[in-house]
Amino acid sequence: MNNVLEIKDLRKIYHSLDGEIEAIDNFSFNLKDGEFVGIVGPSGCGKSTILSILCGLEDKSSGNINYLKSNIGYMLQNDCLFEWRNVLDNCLLGLEIRNELNNKSKDYVMDLIDTYGLSDFIYKYPDSLSGGMRQRVALIRTLATKPDIMLLDEPFSALDYQSRLKISDDIYMI
């Protein structure tokens, strides 16, 4: 298997009035095509910081990151849905931003909406959805762009046990 992501000596330092906080020090890692990897550690150890750096939300302090596949999908801990957009429009957001929204991509999203049991809620707004439903919308939004690499930051914490198992199995199959 070929590497799709190579990280060498990644470092992140936060600066404050009290001094520096080293969040990540000398993190190196290679991700191979088809691998499913989890980063495990206590709260505050830098797991989310690593993912935020990898997807470009934060800058690294030093180190090298080499993306051998460039289509990255990132699902945050929070669903980050836009309250003024209905389920369908929230699901299509990434495709709109990438200027990839067309009939074929919209059909793909409609299939995902059906697969994850949200067909009856397609024109509902996030404030009328349960926490688990909101997370499924966020997952569909992430899957809609067919990412080569998916970064998931505790994405299923709001789901009930049965939904978590089903979606975890689906992610594994993808």
What features would you describe in this structure?
It is a single chain. By secondary structure, the protein is an alpha+beta fold. It folds into 2 domains: 3-70, Rossmann fold; 74-173, P-loop containing nucleotide triphosphate hydrolases (Rossmann fold). It is 34% helix and 24% strand. Helix 2 packs across helix 3 (103-115), helix 2 (87-97) runs parallel beside helix 4 (131-144) and helix 3 (103-115) runs antiparallel to helix 4. The radius of gyration is 17 Å and the shape is globular. The two termini are 17 Å apart. The mean pLDDT is 89.
Task: Give a quick summary of the entry.
This protein has helices at 47-54, 87-97, 103-115, 131-144, 161-173; strands at 3-16, 19-32, 62-67, 72-75, 149-152.
Rg to the nearest angstrom? 17 Å
User: What number of domains?
Assistant: 2
CATH topology of the largest domain, which one?
Answer: Rossmann fold
CATH class of the largest domain: Alpha Beta
* Overall pLDDT metric: 89
Order of helices and strands: EEHEEHHHEH
